[in-house]
């Protein structure tokens, strides 16, 4: 003779199970919202995408692409006379890394059109900002 078990469920247990599952879902959702909020605040505090800019890489790029016309470092001896040195650009009262990065990405007639991506433009801008004294 085979015994079959009969499952008897308590209505209160079913309600408790549903509440538990819902609390887990809400906790997961709350963590996602929290992570998004942290990222938004970090971005807002820095004020720009220059948050991850690498001034050392910017110095390398400047020496490779910009030194033909601009004085890009203290050890550089010559450049074209009618263009500002990077240190002078950095000391300009209106200077900001964000403005310079945008300027570098926008084609303009006085400068050659270098194929910079956003990260490279931000790196060069961070390097120029590091020259501000």
TrEMBL record:
Coiled-coil segments: none
Protein name: Mono/diheme cytochrome c family protein
GO molecular function ontology, one term from the record: heme binding
Keywords of the record: Heme, Iron, Metal-binding
Organism whose genome encodes this protein: Bradyrhizobium elkanii
Pfam families: Cytochrome_CBB3
Gene3D superfamilies the record matches: Cytochrome c-like domain
Signal sequence, renumbered to the chain: none
């Amino acid at each position: 003779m085979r015994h079959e078990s009969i499952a008897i469920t308590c209505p209160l247990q079913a309600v408790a199970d549903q509440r538990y599952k819902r609390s887990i879902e809400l906790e997961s959702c709350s963590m996602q919202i929290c992570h998004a909020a942290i990222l938004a605040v970090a971005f807002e505090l820095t004020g720009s995408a220059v948050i991850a800019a690498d001034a050392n890489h910017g110095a390398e790029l400047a020496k490779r692409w910009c030194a033909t016309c601009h004085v890009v470092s203290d050890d550089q001896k010559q450049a074209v006379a009618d263009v500002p040195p990077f240190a002078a650009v950095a000391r300009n009262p209106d200077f900001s890394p964000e403005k310079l990065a945008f300027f570098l990405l926008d084609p303009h007639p006085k400068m050659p059109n270098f194929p910079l991506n956003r990260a490279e433009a931000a790196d060069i801008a961070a390097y120029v900002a590091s020259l501000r004294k």
